[in-house]
Amino acid sequence: MANTITVVGGLIVAIIGLVLWWLFRFDFVTVFKGCIGVTLFFGGALALAIGISEMRASKEFEAAVPSTTEAKTEEQKPAEQTTETAASQASESAQSSETKEEGAS
């Protein structure tokens, strides 16, 4: 029952609106023409604000995230560093195993 009342009420309001639009069509056109300039102004202002916000966000993002060239240079570290790291890990594990053997005796 509530859906029927909603549909009938909406139909009545739509018909009244159509009749009033027809009666005041010249006034409507005048108001519509006046709204075009205001809409363009606020649309342009909104686009400008969004553009400035996006530029600031991209600068902050670029500052926070390293560029791909920096990431590539870190990946292409010399093999010497890798060998040194492996050697230091091996010596640490040998020291820890010696410490365990001494503690067991």
Which key features would you list for this structure?
105 residues, mainly alpha, single chain, 0% strand
Care to give the gist of this entry?
By secondary structure, this protein is an all-alpha fold. It has a domain at 25-66. 91% of the residues lie in helices and 0% in strands.
How would you explain this protein's 3D organization?
The mean pLDDT is 79. The protein has a domain at 25-66. It is 91% helix and 0% strand. It contains four helices and no strands.
Give the N-terminus to C-terminus distance in angstroms: 91 Å
**How much of the sequence is in beta strands?**
under 5%
Helix content class: over 70%
Calculate Rg over CA atoms: 37 Å
Structural class: mainly alpha
User: How many E strands?
Assistant: 0
Largest sheet: none
Number of helices: 4
The low-confidence runs, each spanning 5 or more residues with pLDDT under 50, are none
Question: What is the average of the pLDDT values?
Answer: 79
Which sequence of SSEs, written as H and E, runs from N to C?
A: HHHH
Give the overall shape: elongated
